[in-house]
Amino acid sequence: MAAVAVAAIQSPQLFAQVAPAAEPEIAPDDGVIVVTAQRREQRLVDVPISVSAVSSAAIDRAQVRNVSDIATVVPNIQINETIGNSFGPLITIRGLSPSADTSLARDQPVGLYIDGVPIGKSTGAAFDTVDLERVEVLRGPQGTLYGKNTIGGAVNLITRKPSGEFGGQFLAGAGSWGQFNQRISVDLPEVAGFSAKVGLITKLDGGYYRNSLRRKNFGEEELWAARADLLWRPSGSFSALYSYDISDSKGTPNQLAATAVTGSGATAFVNALMRPYVVSGRTREIGAQSALRSDYRTNGHALTLEWEPGLGDLTLKSITARRTAITRSASDFDGSPLDLLRIVLNNDYKQFTQELQAIGTAGDFKYTLGLFYLNDDYDVFNPRWNFQFGGNAFDISERGGGSKSYAGYGQFAWTPQALDEKLTASVGLRYTRESKHAYELLLSNSAYRANPAAPGSGVFERDANGNPITRSGEPAAGARPGAGGIGYTDLIPLENSGVWKRFNPEFNILYKFQPDFSVYGRFATGFKSGGINDTAATNTAFMTAYNPEKLTSFELGMKYAGLGNALNLSAAVYHSIYKDFQAGVFVPSLVTTNIINAGKAKFTGFEVEGTLRPVDGFTINFGGGYVDARYTDFILPDGTDVTDTYVLSRVPKWNYQIGALYRHDVGIGQVEAGLNYSWRSSQYSSITPDPLSKMPSYGLLDGRIALTDIELGGGATAEVALWGKNLTDKEYLVSAINLSILTLSQFGDPRSFGGELRIRF
User: Fold this and answer.
1) CB 407 within 8 A of CB 430
2) What letters, b where the CB count within 10 A reaches 16 and e where it falls short, cover 16-35?
3) CA-to-CA distance for 600 and 631, rounded, in angstroms?
4) Pick from 185, 258, 267: which is nearest to 227 by CA?
5) How wide is the angle at C-alpha 342 spanned by C-alphas 338 and 347, nearest 5°?
6) Residue 696 burial (CB < 10 Å; 0-12/13-18/19+)?
7) Termini Cα distance of the chain
8) CB atoms within 10 A of CB 46
9) Which of 441, 440, 456, 445 is nearest to 385 (CA)?
10) What is the Cα–Cα distance from 600 to 581, expressed in whole angstroms?
11) If DSSP codes are grouped into helix, strand and coil, which group holds residue 34?
12) What is the C-alpha to C-alpha distance for residues 67 and 57, in angstroms, rounded to an integer?
C-alpha cells in the first residue's frame, strides 16, 4: 500500500468525524515503503495485517500537527472530538468506536502510541506533535505486540530522530478567522557521539462561531508546543535517546447549538424558555452565559535504549516513559444564554510505562519477545449546574482511581528459505493482567432531594439502611445532603476495584506470488479490560463493574505494488465477533455515559485503498470501506431485549474518498495542485436509533495549490502554498446529543482559506 497524503492541505480540525480525502505521497524511486508495525522494519507488502503508512512529505502537505489531524491523511479511520471539550479525541477504526466519553476510568478500543510509548487515556491526547516523520495506522486487533486495549487497532506516531547534521525548517501560516501558526525545528551537528534536535510550535485560532454574550468566540485556541531529543551513540551497537515534549493550549470549547426541545410536565417551563433559541441549522452566533474554557497541558519524558550484544542480529530494547495530562474545561450545554446546564471538568492524569523487548532472528525464524508494565492514576473534579432537568439543580462529583497492567508477549514468524521466502507463517501470544480501582463522591445538592437515603441522591458511603455515613458521625434520619447538616466534605467516597486476566493468541499466514504481490490470512483475538463506572449516579451502579470485552477476528487481504510503482493497491475483508461488548448508555441527567455489557455484536466489512500514477507527475488516490455492525444479543439489566432496536453508535456503513495531485516543473520550482473529496454515510451518535441523534451523510471537498522546491541558495529551499477547506461550504453535523428535553448539535466548520510559507535549510 502506498504511503498516503492529503491533496488539500487541512488546517487542524478537532471536530472532524470524516477522514477527508487521503492523497498518496510521491513514493521514493525504488517504490519501497518501510514500516515498523510489527516492531521491526519491514516492507509494507511483507506485513500480514492491514496497515496505512503516511510519509513525512505527506504529513507536511496535509498539515498533520496533532492526533486529531490523522483522520485527514488516512482513509477508513474516524476521529471525533468529545462533545464539550477539544482535548479528548475518540478514534474509530473499522466501525469500532469508543463506547463512552473520555472518562479517565475507561479504555478506548484503539491504542495510540508515540515512538512506542502508549498514551493510556484519550483525555489530553489531542496534543500537538513536532516533527512527525511517519504515521502508521494498524487495523484490527493488535493485542500481541501492542496490547493495552488495542482491540480495534493502533495508531503509531513516529517522530524524526536527530540526524547529527545541521538542518531544519521554518513554517509560517495564516487562515480564515484569525488562524496563525508558526513552526520551527532545528537539527544540531553531532558532537562527541551526541546529537540533538529541538522544535517549537505556536498557534492562534480566533474561532468561527461567535458568543454574543462573551468577548471570546467558540473554538478559540492559543497554543504552544515544544519537543527536544538528545541521542547518544557511543558505538555502532548501543544508543540512548531521551525525548521530552510539552503541549500547552488555552481556549474555549466549540459551539453547541440547541436544535430541538422535547419533554413535557415538569420540564415544560424549560421547554418554553428554550424555544426562542432553537436553531434549524448552522448559525454563526449564539449566546452562552457560562464562562467557557477548554485548556490542557501535556508533558512527556521517554528514554529509549537499544543494544546489539553481538549475538546474531539480536537487538535488546528498553522504553521507559512518564506522561502527564492536566485539563480544565467549562462548557455551556444548553445552547442558549439562559445558563440552564453548565459543566466544569478538571482532570489530572499521570502515567508510567516500562517495556522490554528482544528482537532477533534464528535461522528461518524471526522472533519478538517482550514484557510490559503500566501504572497510572487520575483525579477528577466535576461540578454541574443542572437546572434544566428540574431535579438535581447542582451536582458535585469528585472521583479518581488508577490501574496497573502487566503483560508478557511473544511472536514467532517462520519464512522457510526452501520456499524462496515466499511463505511466512507466524504465531503470537500475549498474557495480560490488569487491575483497576476507583472512588466516587457524588452529591446531589438540590431542594428537590428530601431524603439522602434515596438511591438518586448521590454516591457515597452508606449504612445498611441507606443513610449516609459521615466523617463526623451519622446524621439524623431525613437530613438532606448540603441542606440538613451534611456538608460535601463530610461525606465519604465510595470505592470499588477489579482484576481481569486474559491470554490472547493470533495466527497469520502470508504468501508472496511475486516480490510486490502478496495475500494473507489472519486469525486474531482481542481483549479490552473491564472497569468501573466512576460517573455512576447511584451506589448500585458504581459498585457494579462491567466485564471485559472479548473479540475474535478473521481477515483476508492482499497487497500489490507494481508496474514500476504506478499502481499500489491493498484490500481486506474481515469478520469480527464480540462478546460482552461494552456499550455506552447515555445518562441525560448527568450528561455522561455509563458502560453496560451487551451480550454479542458482530462487524463484517471490507476496505480498499490505493494509488494510480497513469503518467509522470499525476497521481490519483482512492479509498473506501463498508461495515455492517450490529448487535446479535443485547439484553438490558431490566430484562428488555434490545437486540434488534439498538444500534452501534458512530458507525457509518459506507465511506469513500478520491483525490488527485498534479506536479509540473516550471523552472523556478514545482507547481503542485490537488483536489480531494471525501464522503461518509449517516450515523447515530447514541446506541438508541433516535432521529434527534442522527447525523446525516455528507461529503467535503478540499483543495491546495503550491509552488515548491524554490532554490534559495546554500542548499535552502522554499515553498509557498494556498489551501481551501470545505470548498462547497457544506453544512454538516459532527455531533448530536439528545438530553431528553433538549438536543444539542455541533456543526462542522464552513468554507475556509489560508496560506503558508515553508523554508527548509
Assistant:
1) yes
2) bbbbbbbbbbbbeeebebeb
3) 6
4) 185
5) 160
6) exposed
7) 31
8) 19
9) 445
10) 6
11) strand
12) 17
- Report the number of distinct structural domains present in the chain: 1
Question: How far is Cα 332 from Cα 744, in angstroms, rounded to an integer?
Answer: 10
Residue 209 sits at φ, ψ, to 5 deg, of -85, 135
Q: Could you report the per-residue pLDDT of 610-650, keeping only the tens digit for each?
A: 999 999 999 998 999 999 999 999 998 888 999 999 999 88
pLDDT single digits (tens) 385-401: 766 544 446 778 899 99
Instruction: Give residue for cell 530494547.
Output: 317
Cell numbers standing for residue 3: 504511503
pLDDT digits (tens, 9 = 90+) for 286-314: 887 667 889 999 999 999 999 999 998 99
Give tens-digit pLDDT for 2-27: 333 333 322 222 223 333 333 333 33
Domain with 461, as residue range(s), is 4-760
Contacts of 245 (CB under 8 A, 6+ apart): 114, 127, 129, 130, 225, 226, 227, 228, 298, 299, 300
Distances (CA, A) of 91 to 5, 76, 88, 658, 725: 19, 11, 10, 22, 22
User: 10 Å Cβ neighbour count for 391?
Assistant: 16
State the average pLDDT for the chain. 85
Q: What is the CATH number of the domain that holds 131?
A: 2.40.170.20
Q: In the structure grid, which three cell numbers stand for residue 39, read together?
A: 516492531
CA pair distance 109, 150, nearest whole angstrom: 6
